[in-house]
Design brief:
single chain; about 80 residues; mainly alpha; about 0% strand; globular
């Protein structure tokens, strides 16, 4: 598994997969098949049904990832909400 001391959000699908132990481990965590993770690496897009499964697994190793990797818009920050963005 990845270094649990890195608090920088992961920005790539490959980064998520690698942080979780590689293609086979990520597929198992996502309740999927390895080919799905291989495709995710190629497209830099993780399957949206795996969002909660993989973000929970990332939290278990002290990591986070950009939700846009799953095609999910991130929650605006407090400052962005105040500014009406």
């Amino acid at each position: 598994m990845a270094d649990t001391h890195d608090s920088t959000p992961i920005k790539t699908a490959s980064g998520v997969i690698d942080a979780l132990g590689g293609t086979m481990a990520a597929a198992r965590l996502a309740q999927s098949v390895p080919q799905v993770m291989t495709n995710a690496r190629a497209k830099n897009r993780l399957p949206y049904p795996s969002f909660l499964l993989l973000t929970t697994a990332l939290a278990d190793v002290g990591r986070t990832a950009d939700p846009r990797l799953w095609g999910i818009k991130p929650v605006p920050s407090d400052e962005e909400r105040r500014d009406g963005q």
